[in-house]
From TrEMBL, chain B:
CDD domains: TM_PBP2. Pfam families: BPD_transp_1 (PF00528). Its main location: membrane. This is ABC transporter permease subunit. It comes from Halomonas koreensis. The lineage of its organism: Bacteria, Pseudomonadati, Pseudomonadota, Gammaproteobacteria, Oceanospirillales.
């Protein structure tokens, strides 16, 4: 639950990563501060990338205001930041506001992938659910085609556990809630019985305490107390939430993590932004992604994005 | 003295000036506070009015009926109350039924009062009338410490420790609730049956300590009995029995958990105010009653309690006001499920918790934002009324004491 409250603590909190000293690599461009505003899901990532950047280029620091993905587009449009981390793509309205101000769209860089997992108690015999079953359990609209709702464990043809399925999820204003609603509930609406927790860690903790519970949470919040369920697709194949499957796009409940960058189509990036993106799209940056429990991008996607940004290829 | 005499007028004038300045500052502070409270109310009202004034963001989408009565939504079999404000506009459209939130708020407050009031009033009556002074001077700071515990800590413990424990040990908890009252009554009776010498060493003022080991004993007894009782009466699974035989849903974070946590939070303030009211009853009244042959119970029940009743009532009302406005405890202990059910074992979602969760993400000026401010206005009006009423009642009590010739 403490991690759950992180969002609140981080609002308005500036994470200052100060690295005093000379800046040999960026000497000709001067020492810089990189201001970023956006997603709290990505706060840990931005922090670690910033730390690494500060070590490579002493004097360069990354300043992060992690108050939610929704705060990134206004800050980019207002020009207070050039880099906005978002755990969802920009909406049409957000993009239009940016274009109206600058005349060109913001550059969308995918920097990592994240997945949602359906979790059960570690002793629960259930190992996989189809999308229709998932929808019948969590929603009251059943848009994915289940004939009737599933409220009890008996309906899943399991000997154990019995009784009502206790449901746990994120609160309605979180991106996790929205993604699960769109992808797993086919855009329908949740049952009102789904417990709404302020963070993914709280969801996992609640499920780990109750053998009759199911929940959904971010992949990076898995603990030994719960097990992640596989999803059964229309042909009956199991889709496990493993990094390789998430990277390939085979696991359905996945999302890209974005950095939106304000960069004119013909202009070049300032040195600080350039160094940051170069790190993020390097093997080193992607190792940090893995360390934090997210899923790194395949090498060819990295190379393609580096080319598009005009960054030297990773070997240099 | 004589030397200082010529200075006196100047000094006095200085002192008067200081007094006037202090009075002015205090008055300004008081007026400032009142103005701030009024400004909050006015701000909320101004932000909320466009909802119902036509042409505002509410427009045709919400009115009193859609807010407070069951609505039929696509995909649902029967009309229902739904608070799902973040569903996208196009499909299936946000749902703004506020009744479950108001219901959850009142349900949480009712359960916390149900748990806190008997305990707090019992403790207040005992410590005001019977407890030894030494024990009382220890008890009061302890309870004040309880009041100083932040709500977020209480909510954290309730949601992450108490709720899972209760879910696993439901039978034990139920046995404990059943055994504690008769067990403690029995213990009280046993004290009366003690031989004279022992009894003198355990005067009434210290009787609370006599009960403590008995609480432990009852707990051990409950732990020993619970599994066999559960096996004999409920087939070894009380939770399953509640769900199948009683047909009640059991949620781990439910109204009773919230009531216990919030009861813990409001108990100290109810205790403090009620204790003040009870110990403020002029001693002459109680002494007179006992001199006329009334027992301690009769004195308490027929004389002291009625005399202090306005103060006790206002203590309960202050507790109710706090329970309704409390945010973090409900947010962390309830599961935030916007349900409209009388089942105390199901979850709930309160107005205050909804504001805390959703307001940071609601677009300012939008419909969702204004509805959350409407929720804030409701809470504001409710706590304002309850607190004002409690204050009015308390000032009546003070007048009554003065008439009875006791301390103010």
């Amino acid at each position: 639950m403490m991690a759950a409250m992180r969002r609140g603590w981080l609002i308005g909190l500036m994470l200052l990563l100060v690295a005093p000293g000379a800046a040999p690599a960026l000497a000709d461009h001067g020492v810089g501060t990189l201001d970023t505003v956006g997603s709290d899901t990505m706060a840990g990532l931005m922090l670690r990338w910033g730390e690494r950047l500060g070590r490579e280029h002493p004097g360069l620091r990354v300043q992060l205001q992690a108050s939610g993905s929704a705060s990134a587009p206004p800050a980019l449009t207002a020009g207070t930041t050039l880099v906005g981390p978002m755990s969802r793509p920009m909406t049409e309205a957000e993009r239009a506001a940016f274009v109206a101000r600058y005349g060109y769209p913001p550059r969308d860089i995918v920097v990592a992938r994240d997945a949602l997992v359906v979790v059960a108690h570690r002793h629960n015999p259930l190992s996989a659910l189809s999308r229709a079953e998932l929808d019948a359990i969590f929603s009251e609209s059943r848009r994915c085609g289940a004939p009737r709702g599933i409220r009890r464990w008996q309906a899943l043809a399991l000997a154990r556990p019995s009784g009502r399925i206790a449901l746990h999820g994120r609160n309605a204003v979180s991106g996790t809630h929205g993604l699960f609603r769109r992808e797993a509930l086919c855009g329908g609406s949740f049952r009102p019985e789904v417990n709404e927790h302020p963070g993914s860690a709280a969801v996992v903790a609640a499920v780990a305490d109750d053998p009759r519970a199911l929940g959904y949470a971010g992949l990076n919040h898995l603990t030994p107390g719960v097990k992640a369920l596989a999803l059964r697709d229309a042909e009956g194949r199991l889709r496990r939430p493993e990094p390789a499957a998430v990277r390939r796009g085979a696991y359905p409940l996945a999302r890209d993590l974005h950095l939106y960058v304000n960069r004119p189509p013909d202009g070049d990036l300032p040195a600080a932004e350039r160094a940051f993106l170069s790190l993020v799209l390097s093997a080193e940056g992607q190792a940090i992604v893995e360390e934090l429990g997210f899923v790194s991008l395949p090498a060819e996607a990295l190379a393609a994005q580096r080319r598009r940004l005009g960054l030297p290829s990773a070997g240099d | 003295m004589r030397d200082a005499a010529p200075d006196m007028p100047l000094r006095r004038r200085l002192r008067q000036g200081r007094d006037r300045l202090a009075t002015a500052l205090i008055t300004a502070g008081g007026i400032g506070v009142i103005a701030a409270v009024m400004a909050i109310g006015v701000f909320l009202a101004v932000e909320v009015l466009p909802l119902f004034w036509g042409g505002g963001p509410g427009g045709p989408e919400v009115d009193l009926e859609t807010l407070w009565l069951p609505q039929s939504y696509p995909g649902l079999e029967a009309p229902a109350h739904r608070w799902q404000p973040t569903l996208p506009d196009s499909d299936p459209g946000p749902r703004f039924g506020m009744a479950p939130l108001a219901w959850g708020t009142l349900e949480a407050a009712a359960w916390s009062l149900l748990i806190a009031v008997p305990l707090a009033l019992g403790a207040a009556a005992h410590s005001a009338l019977f407890m030894s002074r030494r024990l009382r001077t220890r008890l009061k700071p302890t309870l004040e410490l309880m009041e100083a515990l932040p709500g977020v800590v209480i909510g954290f413990v309730a949601g992450l420790v108490l709720a899972p424990w209760l879910e696993r040990q439901l039978a034990l908890a139920a046995t404990l609730v059943l055994l504690l009252p008769p067990g403690l009554l029995l213990a009280g009776g046993l004290r009366g049956a003690l031989p004279g010498g022992l009894r003198r060493r355990l005067p009434l003022g210290w009787a609370a300590l006599w009960l403590l080991p008995w609480v432990g004993l009852v707990a051990v007894l409950a732990a020993w009995l619970a599994p066999s009782l559960e096996a004999a009466w409920f087939g070894g699974d009380l939770r399953g029995w509640i769900e199948t035989t009683l047909g009640l849903d059991y949620a781990g974070r439910n109204a009773v958990i919230v009531g216990m946590a919030m009861g813990f939070a409001v108990m100290p303030s109810i205790y403090a105010l009620a204790e003040d009211a009870l110990s403020g009853v002029p001693a002459s009244l109680a002494e007179g009653a006992q001199a006329l042959g009334a027992t301690r119970w009769q004195t308490l029940w027929r004389v002291v309690l009625p005399a202090a009743s306005p103060g006790v009532l206002s203590a309960v009302m202050i507790g109710a006001g706090r329970a309704v406005g409390e945010t973090m405890i409900v947010l962390m202990a309830s599961g935030n499920t916007a349900l409209m059910t009388a089942n105390p074992l199901d979850g709930l979602r309160s107005l205050a918790a909804s504001i805390a969760i959703e307001l940071p993400e609601a677009a300012p000026g939008g419909l969702h934002y204004r509805l959350l401010l409407l929720a804030a206005l409701l809470l504001f009006v409710f706590t304002f009324l309850v607190n004002t009423l409690a204050e009015v009642v308390r000032s009546r009590l003070r007048r009554r004491y003065r008439r009875l010739g006791g301390a103010p």
